[in-house]
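Quiz preparation item.
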């Protein structure tokens, strides 16, 4: 069996960046990806706009040309998939990594299709595969969506949007503009300060004029086939008619996968342990890259500030 210098788990923007850095340094690498290239971006809402400008999403100094200052999902797919194609990166697609274990000096990586050996492993698995559940009765009903794609199925429907992050606000505004009757149930006292600065006034104005109803300091209690029940800021239980729930309550890294790979997770946020200069975890030669590093705090890392991980990791590998 061939022994790889680096096996990279996940072909997101940061996994691709690690592959480019490995290639540049003549290291023998392979990316294993469970879906398509940049699978998380492929599953984003169809009409989403990045909060970053195109230059901040660039990897390996390859220009990202976008007609608008903030690129959309399709342009990002063209950019990252184009890089993988043009640079002929070594990627196995539709193959899931199931287990990483250390056998003496080498890693054994078991996937849904095969087993590999590598001297170093980079986990760049992101956080977009596991929804942060509300854990309330009715959450498993088919009318409840944890991923939002586009507004058209929701025209003339009574929609509850849970949360006040970028995803919630985009879903509320888009569905409202296609004729949905939108109610937002928001745990916090106001719209999140993380919401894109050019979108925040829009949602706040729609709420204050009453076009979109919003309950702040409120909590979802139960979802029924034709209604939802929530607690409002006075502690009263309110039941409203409802056709669909868009539960935009965030996503989580695969903590079981990290733990099973031997990585220690700290504090309530389950932050993985790693060296801030090299990105090496408590398991020697096992590295983390990209947004997976933040644990439950998924606002900590994004493409903009985790692009540097690739260079840090390869430098550490070469220095050994
Ligand atoms: C809607 C939305 C908008 C965002 N907008 C921005 C923005 O404007 N600017 C910005 O900088 N950041 C943004 N982010 C945050 C973040 O930068 C992105 O989530 C980005 O995709 C993270 O890159 P990544 O490579 O770390 O992880 P991902 O892109 O999530 O890549 C991880 C990859 O690993 C694969 N994978 C997972 N588990 C396995 C496994 N066991 N085996 C094999 N493959 C596996 C996944 O399929 C996926 O392709 C946004 C996030 C979301 C959700």
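Solution:
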């Amino acid at each position: 069996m061939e022994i790889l210098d680096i096996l990279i788990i996940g072909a997101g923007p940061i996994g691709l960046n690690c592959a480019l850095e490995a290639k540049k340094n003549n290291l023998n690498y392979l990316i294993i990806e469970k879906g398509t290239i940049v699978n998380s971006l492929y599953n984003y809402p169809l009409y989403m706009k990045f909060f970053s400008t195109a230059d901040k999403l660039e990897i390996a100094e390859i220009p990202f040309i976008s007609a608008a200052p903030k690129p959309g999902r399709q342009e990002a797919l063209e950019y990252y998939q184009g890089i993988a194609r043009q640079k002929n990166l070594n990627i196995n697609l539709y193959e899931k990594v199931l287990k990483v274990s250390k056998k003496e000096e080498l890693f054994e990586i078991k996937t849904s299709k095969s087993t590999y050996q590598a001297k170093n492993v980079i986990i760049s698995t992101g956080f977009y595969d596991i929804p942060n559940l509300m854990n309330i009765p009715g959450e498993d009903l088919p009318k409840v969506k944890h991923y939002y794609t586009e507004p058209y199925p929701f025209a003339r429907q009574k929609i509850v949007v849970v949360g006040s992050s970028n995803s919630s606000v985009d879903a509320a505004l888009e569905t409202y503009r296609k004729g949905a009757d939108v109610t937002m149930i928001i745990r916090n006292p106001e719209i999140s300060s993380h919401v894109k600065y050019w979108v925040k006034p829009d949602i706040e104005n729609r709420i204050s004029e009453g076009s979109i109803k919003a309950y702040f300091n409120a909590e979802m209690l139960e979802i029924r086939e034709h209604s939802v029940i929530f607690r409002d800021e006075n502690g009263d239980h309110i039941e409203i008619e409802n056709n669909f729930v868009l539960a935009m309550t965030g996503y989580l890294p695969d903590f079981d996968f990290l733990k099973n790979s031997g990585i220690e997770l700290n504090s309530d946020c389950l932050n993985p342990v790693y060296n801030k200069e090299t990105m090496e975890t408590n398991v020697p030669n096992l590295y983390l890259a990209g947004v997976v590093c933040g644990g439950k705090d998924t606002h900590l890392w994004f493409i903009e500030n985790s692009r540097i991980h690739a260079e840090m990791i390869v430098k550490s590998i070469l220095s050994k």
